[in-house]
Write a structure and sequence with these properties.
Elements (H helix, E strand, L loop, with lengths): L34 E6 H13 L5 E10 L2 E8 L3 E4 L2 E4 L1 H7 L2 H5 L3 E5 L9 H14 L9 E7 L4 E8 L4 E9 L7 E6 L3 H13 L17 H12 L1 H5 L4
Parallel strand pairs: 1-3, 1-10, 6-7
Antiparallel strand pairs: 2-3, 2-6, 4-5, 7-8, 8-9
């Protein structure tokens, strides 16, 4: 019989437990030890569509393939009946049991939901759900691959993610950040299915640069006020007149 899962036993891979049970300071993590959370193009667009469609919270499950020790690939997204509000979601778990086989449910390892316009930090309700989910799966035994992924996304594409790799006794955490930012133990990647989309994103990345306003000069400008207004009007046409520059 497997030993029950104890939530507090699992700590980030860049933390250490002190003798009194408290968490110590961060320990650097080598890049090769970080987790890769990949999304197929279909899975990514489905998640984006759900977050864009609903102003309330919305939950989903993700079909995941654990392709390597620290590589997890979300292949598809499953939506199921749920009751939602602006800050709450209650999913019909029984629907999943009634409509999917044990084998199908076994690969639904991603538990995701949105926080619409709020920060994607897990609430106390979210943490209770995570605790219940983890304690239900038990500790690993034999060759069974036990892991669970939790993820929260908001409409600004800020994402929080946590991977509990029970089999390998690892916890990977990504603090809330824009999805392209590397913020923690998890890197997020989209697996584009054709070269056209990948090339389009690469071209955009090379053409779009962040605007940095020029530094203000400490010297006092000698340009007359009327001249500045004239330049503004010349550059912006009727809008200069609208704001009084005529």
């Amino acid at each position: 019989m497997s030993k029950p899962f104890i939530f507090e036993d699992y700590i980030p891979i860049n933390r250490q437990i002190l003798f009194d049970g408290k968490i110590s300071i961060n320990i650097p993590v080598d890049e090769k030890d970080k987790a890769q959370l990949n999304f197929t193009e279909k899975a990514w667009y489905k998640m984006m569509s759900l977050v864009a469609k609903f102003h309330s919270e919305v939950a989903w499950r993700g079909i995941v393939e654990h392709t390597d020790k620290n590589i997890f690939t979300v292949k598809d997204i499953i939506i199921y009946p749920q009751k939602v509000s602006g800050a709450y979601v209650e999913g019909d778990e029984q629907f999943l049991f009634n409509n999917y086989s044990r084998e199908e449910r076994n690969v639904m390892r991603l538990h995701g939901h949105s926080h619409n316009d709020m920060a994607p930090s897990p609430s106390s309700v979210d943490m209770s759900h995570r605790r219940e989910t983890l304690e239900a799966i038990g500790r690993p035994f034999g060759d069974e691959d036990l892991y669970v992924i939790f993820m929260i996304m908001n409409r600004s594409l800020s994402i929080e993610a946590t991977i509990y790799d029970v089999t390998n006794n690892k916890l990977y955490k990504r603090e809330p950040a824009f999805f392209t930012e590397n913020n923690g133990d998890i890197s997020l990647n989209i697996l584009y299915e054709d070269n056209e989309m990948e090339k389009f994103i690469a071209d955009a990345d090379s053409m779009v640069t962040e605007f940095k306003p020029p530094e203000k000069s400490s010297k006092k400008s000698s340009t007359p006020v009327g001249k500045v207004q004239s330049q503004y009007y010349d550059n912006y046409g009727i809008y200069g007149g609208y704001y009084g520059f005529d």
